[in-house]
Design brief:
The chain has 177 residues and is α+β, with helices and mostly antiparallel strands. It is built from 9 helices and 5 strands; from the N terminus they run E-E-H-H-H-H-H-H-H-E-E-H-E-H. The protein has a domain of 96 residues.
C-alpha cells in the first residue's frame, strides 16, 4: 500500500451506494460533503480506535493488515506477495496520528481521487468545484460542492439507485480530527 487512500478502494459496489451527506463543519452553510457511509465509518475508526484489535473489529482484518504493512515502511514486497507478513497484536496500541507523517498524508473525503472513485463523473462536472492547494504540498486537490447544490446532487444520486442519508453528526465526526 503506497497511500492511505488505498484503504478506501477496498469495498464492493453496493457499499458505495449508501451515501451520507451533511454540511462541512468549518464552512458554515456554504459547503456540503457526500461520502460513502462505509468510508465515513473508516475515517472515524482510524481517528478513534485505541488498539489494533479495536480497529480490526471496526474495519475488518484485510484493511488492518494493509494498514499495518503501511506502518512498517519498507517491508519486503516479495514476502507480502507470498502471504508472509506480520499481523498486529490485537492489544497493541494504535494511533492514526503516529501513523501519518504529515498533515498532507491525512485522507480527506473531498480528495479528488476519492471522490472520482465513487461519484459519477457527470455529477462532478455539473456540481463540484475543483480546488488545488496554493502551494504544491502533498495534499493534492479536492472537490467542493456548494450547499445550494445539495438537492440537485441528491435527486441525481437517488435516480441512479443510491441511498442518501443526511447525517451532519457523522460528517462532523469525520472532520473532527
Amino acid at each position: 500500500m503506497t497511500s492511505l487512500n488505498e484503504l478506501f478502494t477496498l469495498q464492493n459496489s453496493e457499499e458505495q451506494k449508501v451515501i451520507i451527506y451533511g454540511g462541512v463543519p468549518w464552512a458554515g452553510e456554504s459547503e456540503v460533503v457526500f461520502i460513502p457511509k462505509h468510508w465515513a465509518e473508516l475515517f472515524v475508526a482510524l481517528h478513534t480506535s485505541k488498539t489494533w484489535g479495536e480497529l480490526s473489529s471496526r474495519i475488518g482484518t484485510e484493511k488492518v493488515h494493509l494498514l499495518y504493512l503501511y506502518s512498517l515502511e519498507g517491508y519486503p514486497e516479495e514476502e507480502v506477495a507470498e502471504g508472509l507478513f506480520p499481523k498486529p497484536n490485537s492489544s497493541e496500541p494504535f494511533s492514526f496520528e503516529e501513523l501519518i507523517n504529515s498533515w498532507d498524508e491525512r485522507p480527506d473525503p473531498r480528495n479528488e481521487s476519492l471522490v472520482r472513485a465513487w461519484l459519477p463523473e457527470v455529477l462532478i462536472v455539473k456540481y463540484a468545484e475543483h480546488r488545488c492547494p496554493a502551494t504544491p504540498a502533498g495534499g493534492g486537490s479536492w472537490f467542493e460542492i456548494e450547499q445550494s447544490n445539495t438537492n440537485f446532487v441528491l435527486n441525481e444520486l437517488l435516480e441512479r439507485g443510491y441511498t442518501c442519508i443526511k447525517d451532519n453528526a457523522m460528517i462532523a465526526e469525520v472532520f473532527d480530527h
